[in-house]
Design a protein that fits this description.
This protein has a single domain, classed as B-lactam Antibiotic, Isopenicillin N Synthase, Chain (Jelly Rolls), CATH 2.60.120.330. The two termini are 22 Å apart. The chain is globular and about 60 Å long. It is built from 11 helices and 15 strands. With 366 residues, the protein is of the alpha+beta class. Strand 9 and strand 10 form a beta hairpin.
């Protein structure tokens, strides 16, 4: 809802051509002879992009106490709603604490993801998928049929359509149920956050849920990412700067940093609080859809899990008539079915707000 980066002889060094046929970055990274990345993984940064990284931003990343939003007194809830609105407007990102999702469940989810990526190439090939919108799909980079430069990343994506299509890979054994439980709990957290965001916009609490037909239905994209150690992390990219499709994306990770947010012309490193959920606003909310990226390192494997939460596939998403009228403005985006936007996002160049810009209404149009 649119609202406002030991020497080997040259003879023994594998060639880029050999590596270009590698099915996953994990296998490439584990090669004992790898000392530099192949040319097709060398990411050229936009010269106009400000590469300053701020370790200590001028103000801290917003923290939202979920328990006060969901169960606090009217005054406490009112205060948190105001904080939530400012976080969405100024940052498009916040950390959620006291969210009620068991820490052990999060740990088991990460264990299962690690187990999946540790499967043999043959086992993982069962879930390769043929289409970017397949229910279950694993692979590398973002879209290898489209990417000119590969990203230092392997992924597992599962599209979950509530309430009926809730299928996960059956490997590793026993984790399908764990992943589903986690997604259902995240769905509950997201519902409460969307209520608070609605109220921060001066709308009734259930406005977004009703407008997007999310009271009993909705879509979640389970996106598990593996970023292995990279011998030249300054030349590679885990994922380039981009915004997400959907309304809210909820991220957890294995304690290894790598997520960076764009703010005031600088990149801000995210240092997650213990047992917190990282949340960014996404394109279909466009309160301020957050541009972020994943960088890599040469020492440790980073695992992250992003749960993208959106409306049902057939939902029509467009500017809120109430907000357009309230602000005496014209709609900034065309209406589009969420399934069509999802297809656009997954087949378009992953950079900045490329997909969102394609449905933006020009100021010249009257």
């Amino acid at each position: 809802m649119a609202a406002t980066t030991p020497l080997v002889s040259e003879a023994s060094r594998p060639s880029p051509t050999q590596f270009s046929k590698t099915t996953c970055v994990k296998k490439l990274a584990e090669s004992p002879s790898l000392t530099s990345i192949p040319a097709n993984y060398t990411f050229t940064k936009d010269p106009q992009e400000d590469e300053v990284v701020s370790e200590d931003p001028e103000e801290p990343i917003p923290v939202i106490d979920f328990s006060l939003l969901a169960y606090g007194t009217p005054d406490q809830r009112s205060t948190v709603i105001q904080e939530l609105g400012r976080a969405c407007k100024d940052w498009g990102f916040f950390m959620v604490i006291n969210h009620g999702v068991p820490e052990r469940l999060i740990e088991r989810v990460i264990e299962g993801i690690r187990g999946f990526f540790d499967l043999t190439e043959e086992e993982k090939r069962e879930f390769e998928g043929k289409n970017v919108l397949d229910t279950i799909r694993c692979g590398t980079s973002f879209n290898t049929s489209f990417d000119k430069v590969f990203f230092w990343r392997d992924f597992l994506k599962v599209i979950i359509q509530h309430p009926h299509h809730l299928h996960f890979p059956d490997k590793p054994a026993g984790f399908s149920e764990v992943w589903l439980e986690y997604c259902q709990r995240i769905r509950g957290v997201v519902r409460e956050l969307l209520k608070g965001i609605s109220e921060s916009l001066g709308l009734e609490a259930s406005y977004i849920l009703k407008a997007m037909n999310m009271e009993s239905a909705g879509l979640q994209s389970f996106v598990a990412n593996l970023y292995p150690p990279c011998p030249q992390p300054d030349l590679a990219m885990g994922l380039p700067p981009h915004s997400d499709h959907g309304l809210l994306t909820v991220v957890t990770q294995n304690g290894i940093g790598g997520l960076q947010l764009q703010r005031n012309g600088k990149w801000v490193n995210v240092h997650a609080l213990p047992n917190s959920l990282l949340v960014n606003t996404s394109d279909q909310l466009e309160y301020k859809s957050n541009v972020h990226r994943a960088v890599v390192n040469e020492k440790a494997t980073r695992i992250s899990l992003a749960i993208v939460n959106g409306p049902p596939l057939d939902a029509i998403v467009g500017p809120s008539p109430e907000l357009v009228k309230k602000e005496s403005s014209r709609p900034a985006y065309i209406e589009i079915k969420y399934k069509d936007y999802l297809g656009l996002h997954q087949t378009n160049k992953l950079y900045g707000k490329a997909s969102l810009d394609r449905i933006r209404i020009s100021n010249d149009v009257i």
